[in-house]
Structure formats: structure tokens, C-alpha cells
Amino acid sequence: MSQKHQANETAVLVLALTITLGLVGGVFWWLANNGMVSNFIKNPSSQAVSKGDTFAQVSNVPSGLFSYGGSTTWAPIRREVDSLIQTTAPQFRLRYTDPTTGAPGSKTGIKMLLSNQLAFSQSSRPIKDEEYQQAQQRGFSVKEIPVAIDGIAIAVNPNLNIPGLTLAQLKDIYTGKITNWRQVGGPELAILPYSRRLSEGGTIEFFEENVLGGEKFAENVQFISTTTQALQELAKNRGGIYYASAPEVVGQCGVKPLPLGRRKSNQLIPPYQQPFVALEQCPQQRNQINAAAFQSGEYPITRRLFVIIKQNGQNDQQAGEAYAKLLQTNQGQELITKAGFVRIR
User: Going by DSSP bridges, is the β-strand pair 64-70/165-166 parallel, antiparallel, or unpaired?
Assistant: First the structure.
């Protein structure tokens, strides 16, 4: 090959490289000027449309006192989030409100929202068709904004020797078809299922619809008022079983969370990170939720947590939307993780 030909090839390559670098530089300049490079550096997993990194970056946060309420599952999130919101946006005053009758929960929170007792509500289950219809009858609509992922964990007595359950076995226990632990590979021992009442929360509604398939609870199910009470009973009763939001179960010292499988007992997924921390080491060391399995959907019973917003074009709508945006920031998602739940973004 002649020197002249080699020189021509070199010139073409240099020109092509110069053009390529120019295009890359132009794209980088455009991204930088639109704030996308800095967002990516701060949060590589963020999408192109950022929801903000901190509470302080959320705009249109209204002024006033806003009542909200609903799901008891949300209690750990409220503890972590609300005081910091008040510090960042002191004009946005939040007041948690219990129902005047009945127990707090997703259902009662949405009912109070529809009755104009709340500005927005918190729910551990989606809005139901009849609730959409009730809102329309009152002259407005409602929407749900997901902000976190949760799992339902199954708890048993620490002294019960059983590797786990399938969803079908769990359903059969709560509908009365399985009544002895021997039927699922455990000891000769009567099963005592515990539950809160269906009217008392979104977790129970979710369990009845998604695990029991709409079937009714069996007559041997013992109904109990609170998760704290149920876990205390479970710690004393070797044959007991209970279900609740994973952050309420997995880190407890007096009960054992069970792995679950969709169809096969040899494909059980634990709600806790492995290896399991022996309960004798609690509370110095506690089990942590299996966030990866919840986020991927590998764990069989997961759900989303929602902010329920009244769409009426007034301050209540602005308050609900602002609260959801605050929780969707990177700061809000980190606090959700700290509360024991799984970030949704």
C-alpha cells in the first residue's frame, strides 16, 4: 500500500473521529444544560423525568392544616416522613386523624376522604369500584398514586418446626380445609389461625381477595384487634399462625416469619434476607425484609401502598398531590426504605 493511500485513510479516520466526538460532546452539552447529567450522577437508577431528589425541590406545596388518615400499615412511614416534611415545609401542616367510629384502616380512611373529613388518605390496597362510584355521586373523582412496595409476611411460633407454606396451603388453613400442622409436614398439632377483622384494614381485604380468592374465613379463625396483640398471642401459642405487613413481622423477636411458595413447597421464598438471624440474637440483631424479592415479585404476596387523592380542583387535591410527590423524591424513597418498605423508584 502506498504512503499516499495510507495518508488518505488516516485523514478519513481522523475526520470521522472528530465528527463522532463533536456529536457526543453536543449530546452531553444538551443533557448537562437540561439537568439530566447531574440527576444521573446523584441517582443512576433515576428515569429521565426526575421527580426531585429532596423534599425542598418539590414545588406547589400548599399552606394550611390538612387532615389525613387511613392504613395502619403506613404507621412506620408516617413516623419517618412526617416530621421531616414539617421541617422542610412548615407551611404544610399535617394532622393524622382517627375515625370517630370503628378502627383505623384503608377502608375507613377512604370512607372519611369521601365524606370530606380528610384532605387525602393512605391505603394499603387499591381503590374499589364502589368507592369510585361514591366519589362521582359526591361530585368529584379520586385517584391512587403508588409510593412504596410491601409484602405480606406469615408468622408462626418460633418453636413450630415447618419449612414454609405454599399459597394453596395458606388458603386452605384460613378457609378451614387444613386444620392440623401434620397436613403440611409439621407436628401433630391443631392450627389456630389469627386475623384482624375484614372491616378493620386494607391488609385483611387484600388477603381475603388475593389469597383466599374471595372465600370466607373459617369458623376456627380467631379475630383479634391489633397486630401487636396477635403477635403476643402467637408467641405463646405453638399452633398459631398470623399474617401482616412484612415490616410488622420480619424484625420481631418473638415470632418466626415463614418462607412462601407459589405452587411448589420446594420453591419457597423467605420474606427476610438470608441467612436467617436466630431469634436468640434479637434484639441486638434483627432480620431484615427481603427487599430484592419484594421488588422483583419473586416473593408471592406483594402489594403497593397508595396515597389516595380527591380530585376536586381545590386545596385538598393540591395537598394530596404534594404529599405523594414528596414521598416519590429520592429523599422520600430513602425514608420509606428506612421504615422497612421497598422503594418504588
Answer: unpaired
